Amino acid sequence: MKISYECGPCFLRQAKEALDLSTDDEALKMEIMGDIFKFLSRNFESGTNSNSTGSAMHKMIIERTGCRDPYYNEKIQGNEIALRYLPEVEKILRDDDSLENYVKISIIGNILDFGAFTLDDDIESVIRQSLKKDLVIKDVEEFENALKTNDKVLYLVDNTGEIVFDKLLLNKIKDYDLDITIAVKSQPILNDATKKEALEAGLDEFGEIVEIGCGTVGYVDSEISQEFREIFNSHKFIISKGMGNYEGLTEIDLQDKDVFFLLCAKCNTISKDIGVNLHDMLLFKR
């Protein structure tokens, strides 16, 4: 997906947060922020890819500060929030074990995103409100048909914390007797899940965990490894979690694939691109 003018302040907010989490050196933060201004002045224009721009900015912060995982504590916090709500969502699924409800719970997990929310946002309140909402776009029938007619699926996970709720959907998918491959980031970026967090959450119970070969904001086709490209190309059925993967996958040709996007629209640029309202929860094929 291409950037909009609203991506500008979002890039700067993320840069400030990542810098504050990476170092206490005020002089270094001033220097790096100045370089980010220069980088954006050269690259922030219509037609620029949003994921590539954000990835380059975060890579700059990581390399200059030497902090390889700025959101380490926030990822722990995300897991703690998800685990706190797990009994509540499991009760909901006992009362209604429909595929749609499993999808909805998985999407609610997508709220745990420190790339879209600020560290001061009341994320727990957003989760409580979302539990009462319905999916705005719900291609559930097509999704279930894909589960029934394919023998394997590639599941692109998104955030730590969110993956706790992904486990519930993955367990439901196992009922359809598919081989599941679970794709994670190779290096830390924001609060995205790496293999370490995926293993800690127990995702390997449901399928093989593979790395995409890079640590980028969402999916960046030019950055993935050849090994993962072969895995990606071998799958017709793909489940894509989160906004970052949506932004990246809509940049490439998916004509021969059944790709289902599961996400919460957490920014105006994404909302406008899809044609929904802010904070709407969606399951759609595109």
Helix content estimate: 40-55%
- What form results from the Cα inertia axes? globular
Task: Count every helix, treating DSSP H or I runs of 4 or more residues as helices.
Answer: 12
The CATH superfamily of the largest domain bears the name: Uncharacterised protein PF01937, DUF89, domain 3
Strand-residue fraction? 5-15%
C-alpha termini separation: 13 Å
What's the CATH first level of the largest domain? Alpha Beta
Task: Give a brief description.
This protein has 286 residues and is α/β, with parallel strands linked by helices.
Question: What does this protein look like?
Answer:
The protein is an alpha/beta fold and 286 residues long. Helices cover 51% and strands 12% of the residues. A seven-stranded mixed beta sheet has the order 1-7-6-5-2-3-4, with helices on both faces. Helix 11 links the parallel strand 5 and strand 6. The mean pLDDT is 92.
